[in-house]
Specification:
With 240 residues, this protein is an alpha+beta fold. It has seven helices and nine strands, in the order αααββββββααβββαα.
Length: 240
């Protein structure tokens, strides 16, 4: 059996975080340099008034990276934390940071277990409380995922393409097994009585502590079939 590259959790996100951080630093350095040159020029052109204007005008300083840059680094750390938990679970095969061909999208974690194939998307929501709300009536269900008081059900719906990508990669090998989607939240909080994962619109919503019990459920796949599935998925969804 060929050796399957497990990938590195959060690697592509970390690369993007570094790229954005470097770009921000260069932009800030250019802004500071431009400010310094302006001060030199205005003093040279207007020795008296120029000095006064330069003195009362605040000097440009390098600013901290904005939140849309910092969020990439936070995401990389979160994926790494989930990756560490997955690596410690015995008997499963973990494929981290897989690239979807012909797109810029990636899948955080794909896990092959005896119960089937899991697609896990990591989300960092530090200190935010997770809530499951069912607004439906007798004949229609309207399930919602609330994170920190905001409706983030879109995260659940966004799992569809990931499941479809994995299914296309290995559908003929699944047999009675299935591909299951899961959203794993890092550093979020849940209620006192919320000890088990939720099912929201067919997607499991969970947190790191429950991953072992979720992934170690018995199923129809033996080790040989698990290896074959992992090899196929790794070949068709390479590391990002």
């Amino acid at each position: 059996m060929p050796v399957v590259d497990p990938g590195v959790a959060g690697r592509s996100v970390s690369r993007e975080a570094e790229r954005r951080s470097v770009r921000h630093q260069r932009q800030e350095e250019a802004r500071v340099t431009a400010d310094r040159e302006w001060r030199t020029q205005i003093k040279a052109k207007h020795p008296l008034a120029g000095r006064l204007v330069a003195a009362v005008t605040p000097k440009a300083q390098i600013r901290a990276a904005p939140s849309h840059v910092q969020v990439w680094a936070t995401g990389a750390v979160g994926e790494g934390k989930v990756g560490d938990v997955l690596d410690a679970i015995p008997g499963i095969i973990v494929l981290n940071d897989r690239h979807k061909p012909r797109s810029r999208s990636n899948i955080d974690h794909i896990v092959v277990t005896s119960s089937g194939v899991w697609v896990i998307d990591t989300k960092v929501r530090t200190g935010k409380r997770l809530e499951f709300v069912d607004k439906g009536g007798l004949f229609m269900r309207d399930q919602r995922l609330i994170v920190g008081g905001r409706d983030e059900t879109r995260l659940v719906d966004a799992m569809t393409w990931q499941v479809e990508a994995v299914q296309r990669a290995c559908a003929d090998l699944l047999g009675e097994a299935v591909v299951r989607p899961a959203l794993c939240f890092v550093d979020a909080t849940v209620g006192w009585f919320d000890h088990r994962p939720w099912m929201v619109r067919g997607v499991v919503v969970c947190w790191r502590a429950v991953l072992p019990q979720l992934l170690l459920r018995p199923g129809p796949l033996g080790r040989r079939r698990m290896d074959v599935l992992a090899e196929r998925i790794a070949s068709r969804l390479p590391t990002a």
